[in-house]
Amino acid sequence: MPAGKLVHAIVDNYAVHKHLKVIQWFGRHPRWTFHFTPTSASWLDAVEGFFAKLTKRRLKRCVFHSLVSLQAAINRFVADANAERRPFRWTKNPDAIIAAVRRGHQALDSIH
Asked: Is the pLDDT of residue 101 over 80?
């Protein structure tokens, strides 16, 4: 990143940002802003999957000579994806998901 530009990063690591070394790093790098996904936000997996497809199918190994050409490529991908949209369907039993979340909370509580 060019010097002087603000950097925004979206991360989903639980509690990593509370570690002393990470807090110290934040203090030394004020232009970085981290946005942490909430816990129990499994719906974000679908969003992450969309961005993975965008990267793999449209952006990877491409050269964009301007911000406008990059934006145009992204907009074309979104338009194509919307033209062939399919609803996201949950395939797992909701009771199994809730049970897994409870086990996860128990494991995290035992750590803290």
From this structure: yes
